Structures are given as C-alpha cells and as structure tokens.
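Today's session is about reading a structure prediction critically. Students often jump straight to the picture, but the first step is always the sequence itself: look for stretches that repeat, for charged clusters, for runs of hydrophobic residues. Only then move on to the predicted structure, which in these notes is written as discrete structure tokens rather than atom positions. Here is the chain we will use throughout the hour.
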Amino acid sequence: MPSRARLDEFIAVVEAGDHAGAIERYYTEDSSMQENAAPPRVGRDLLVAHERGVLARMTHVYFQRRCPPWWRGRQRRHSLDFELTDKSARCAVSTRSHCSKWRGDKIFRERFSTIRPGPKT
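Below is the predicted structure for this chain, in token form.
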C-alpha cells in the first residue's frame, strides 16, 4: 500500500490533468487497465499510448470525484463523474466506479465500471 504522501502526489497529478504522466509514474511496468467488460489492456507503455490517443481526440476533459476514496487492504475505490467532448463537439457524460489495486507504491490493476451512462450530445 502506498504512503499517504505518495497517494496525494498521484491524486494531484491526475487532478492536474496529466493522465498519461500519472500512468508513467504511478503504474507498474506490467500494469493492466480494464473498461467495463472489455478485455484488459496490459503493459504500462500500452496504457500510456492509449491514454495519449484518447486525450488527443478530446477538446474538453472534465471529471469530479463523487465521494472520498476508501481503502481496503491494497485496494482503493472511488466514483467519478466524467464529461468528455471530442473535436467534433460530441459530448459523453457518465459516472464511473474506479477500483485500483496497488503493489507497493504503484498501481498494478485498475478497472473502471460505468455506473450511470449520461446522454451523448
């Protein structure tokens, strides 16, 4: 489990919008990320490339925590509201549950589940 200072650093990087940088610095080399029932993406380099690709297609990325995160052993959970607007002005809004498992001071497994899909405009 990471120290409180390490977790605060990670949260600050993510909240500053440096999502790819957070993956580079706070995920293990063999980490995986899974969206809903899709197969997991595996490997930090692939995760960083995917994140950069998604962000490059967006003009607006907004998220807000719905409640404080909670810990159980090496697992951290929280819920986020997301709003993503792509370059063609399509907007997707959703609420997602986020679960991460830590190995030492880095994330090695992460899963997102959509709780409440919002309307696409």
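Discussion point for the tutorial: The longest helix spans residues 44-56.
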